[in-house]
């Protein structure tokens, strides 16, 4: 989906463009190629740069057209839509184990049944659950739980698995291509774009 599809969405103010993996970076950018694919950015004639102050940014319908042009002019990529998590939380399970995802998913559904959007992709068991905070709620900030699965040797596995809660000051991807080359999908086609219709 392009940014233009979000012009009448209640999510509009929190949308940000994400620099596509493999995109040309501006020589003035401090970003490195291995870091892009999930970072908010803007296109300039010299290349992509980071989106400074994105957490304070608010998008308007007029900006949607400009954001779509970033992707057309910045390499012909399909738009990648990010969302600032001020009023939405995301539980992100960065672990490819199917059983871990089932346990986390069942726990979330038990507490927030029917109020959660579930993001996934075809090439991974990794899952993310997005839910909207009640308007006026106190902001919730990032939390991270790192762990190793039973019988895993940290010396062999290396980096631990993570379950993150992304809140105020963070952003998540809601439409477009994951850096692995597979698009994000939504369980039952219930996405942030149509969840509030």
- Write down the Rg: 17 Å
Q: What's the number of helices?
A: 3
Distance between the termini: 16 Å
- What kind of sheet is the major sheet? 6 strands, antiparallel
Overall SS class: alpha+beta
Give the overall pLDDT as a whole number. 90
Sequence stretches where pLDDT stays below 50 over 5 or more residues: none
Approximately what portion of the residues adopt beta-strand conformation? 25-35%
Q: Report the count of strand segments.
A: 11
Write down the secondary-structure element order. Answer: EEEHEEHEEEHEEE
Total count of domains: 2
- The percentage helix is 10-25%
The strand line-up of the biggest sheet is 8-9-5-7-6-11
Question: Which shape, going by the Cα principal axes?
Answer: globular
């Amino acid at each position: 989906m392009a940014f233009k599809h979000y012009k009448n969405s209640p999510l509009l103010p929190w949308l940000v463009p994400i620099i596509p993996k493999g995109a040309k970076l501006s020589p003035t950018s401090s970003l490195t190629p291995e870091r892009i694919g999930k970072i908010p950015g803007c296109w300039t004639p010299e290349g992509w740069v980071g989106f400074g102050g994105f957490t304070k940014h608010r998008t308007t319908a007029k900006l949607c057209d400009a954001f779509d042009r970033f992707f057309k002019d910045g390499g012909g990529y399909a738009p990648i839509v990010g969302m600032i998590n001020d009023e939405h939380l995301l539980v992100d399970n960065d672990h490819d184990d199917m059983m871990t995802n089932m346990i986390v998913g069942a726990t979330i559904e038990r507490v927030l049944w029917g109020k959660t959007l579930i993001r996934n992709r075809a090439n991974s068991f990794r899952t993310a659950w997005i839910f909207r905070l009640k308007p006026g709620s106190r902001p919730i900030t990032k939390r991270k739980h790192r762990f190793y699965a039973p019988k895993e040797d940290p010396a062999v596995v290396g980096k631990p698995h993570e379950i993150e809660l992304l809140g105020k000051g963070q952003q998540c991807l809601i439409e477009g291509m994951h850096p692995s080359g597979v698009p994000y999908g939504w369980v039952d086609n219930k996405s942030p774009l149509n969840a509030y219709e």
